[in-house]
């Protein structure tokens, strides 16, 4: 059975999906982009600040499911320009211990929602 996870501490879905779905002990998050939940504005000052906002949004979704980044087993990172990889990775890596970091793929794509530069989704297990 699945449990829908939605929190006011992360951007509300803008389509027919939820922030996350918990089934058993496994949480599947939807992709998060850099929307500031308080203002509703995109955070696009720099690729680092954009990635930081994405990670904070994911943190809020994980917390709504009573999880942390320690529970994450897989991340998918979609970026609009592979030249931004090192800056995105520098922010992303602050949220994980290198020895226990999740599996991950990083893919360059042509476009992302609202034409942002980075979107990240995760799978976590409790």
UniProtKB/TrEMBL annotation:
InterPro entries documented for this protein: RidA (IPR006056), RutC-like_sf (IPR035959), YjgF/YER057c/UK114 (IPR006175)
Coiled-coil intervals: none
Gene Ontology MF: a single term: deaminase activity
Cellular component, GO annotation: cytosol
A matching Pfam family: Ribonuc_L-PSP
Entry similarity comment: Belongs to the RutC family.
UniProt protein name: RidA family protein
Taxon lineage: Bacteria, Pseudomonadati, Bacteroidota, Flavobacteriia, Flavobacteriales
